[in-house]
Amino acid sequence: MSSPPSVSHARPRPRHPLVPVVAIALGSFAVVVSEFVPVGALPQISDGLGITEGTAGLLVTLPALSGAVAAPAATVLMRRLDRRLAIIGLTALIAVSCILSAATTGFAMMLVSRLILGISIGGVWATSVSAAARLVPARIVHTASSVVFGAIAVGSVVSVPSSSLIATHTSWRATFVAAAAVAVIAALVQALAIPKIPAADRVTMAHFRPLLRSVPANIVLAVVFLVVFAQFSAYTFVVPYLHDVTGLGAGLASGLLLGYGALTIVGNFGGGALLGRSIRGTVIATLVFGAGGLLALSAGGTVTASVCVGLALWGLAWGNAPVALQHWLYTDGQDRFSTEAVNATFTAVVQVAVASGSLLSGVAVNAVGVRSSAALGTVASAIACVLALGFMALSARRATAQEAVVAVSHEEVRAAALD
């Protein structure tokens, strides 16, 4: 994922700056793996706990809700805390949550463990990118951010298919044990590799006001919400969708999801390179690919070829979506917004969208069947395209009008000087 504009405050400078960046990225990887473990093991979890698959979708909804609250709260509450300690503590909390999930004796305890995970999700997303950016020279800030968000893309590659396979051949509890082990390893590496990273912005709630009062920023955030809502409406139930609608076995479904995940990595790094040429062009391409992929998946759900094409387009789009949308938001903000406030707000919107998409999709799945999940995602993705294209067209028209006014003013000044 591309980074925000370089931060002006002093940076800690380790001798090999990308080493601690990789350690931070491991925490992001652990977050994604832990968050999406239930997606791959959803059928087994629902059977094991005696609940419907739609209800099991709450295991994605609840951590997203607590993450939405935790992102701005953690940013403010940890404003004086060394970011090294914050990142290590949040990563360790992932392991605690996963161990509780593996040992759960009922659905209520499982929900509590997932709420705990949400605290880590919000905190890690809100602090990791800015912390990684401060560890490297300004010229490779984009590289540092791409490493962190590349880890998120890799996490999405391995989490769902691997948890599906583990749950199929062992038990769904083993998937949470594996996720806990990943988090423990990440925390140990972070303790060894990350130097002290003093808090920078000292964010308070006042830092959020300029962002929340900006109409263009709120439109971009609305597009972010719709894109993420679409993603998790469909993705939360993608395993039962491939089984029940497309009629694929566990092995073939896992293989397709692995391919989907691999394409998210391509989208992440390829989209990051394209952003240097055109932010708006990259955003448009991302939104169109995402909507097209979900349309192919939902309209041709019973046709394996259509599903393969849909997953390919969807994977490429989702891999680049966080990159493009966050960069679009930063570009709009320029130097008017606090970097950490933007990170926290973006994270909160993303997590609310994850919760909303998985929750409403779960309601639809319980009411009318699993096919509704992809249909709901397609509609939300199409609305995001229309909103973004309309906003860009209006912005371009206003920019052209302002340039014309400036040009006329210059001509008038020149004419007056000649007189």
From TrEMBL:
It is a multi-pass membrane protein. Its main location: membrane. CDD domains: MFS_NepI_like. Keywords: Cell membrane, Membrane, Transmembrane, Transmembrane helix. PROSITE patterns: MFS (PS50850). InterPro entries: MFS, MFS_dom, MFS_Efflux_Transporters, MFS_trans_sf. It comes from the Bacteria. It is found in: Cell membrane. Gene3D superfamilies: MFS general substrate transporter like domains (1.20.1250.20). Pfam families: MFS_1. The chain crosses the membrane at residues 18-37, 57-78, 85-109, 115-135, 147-168, 174-194, 215-237, 257-276, 283-305, 311-330, 342-368, 374-394. The keyword Ligase does not apply. Residues 20-398 form the Major facilitator superfamily (MFS) profile domain. PANTHER family: CHLORAMPHENICOL EFFLUX PUMP RV0191, PURINE EFFLUX PUMP PBUE. This is MFS transporter. It comes from Streptomyces cellulosae.
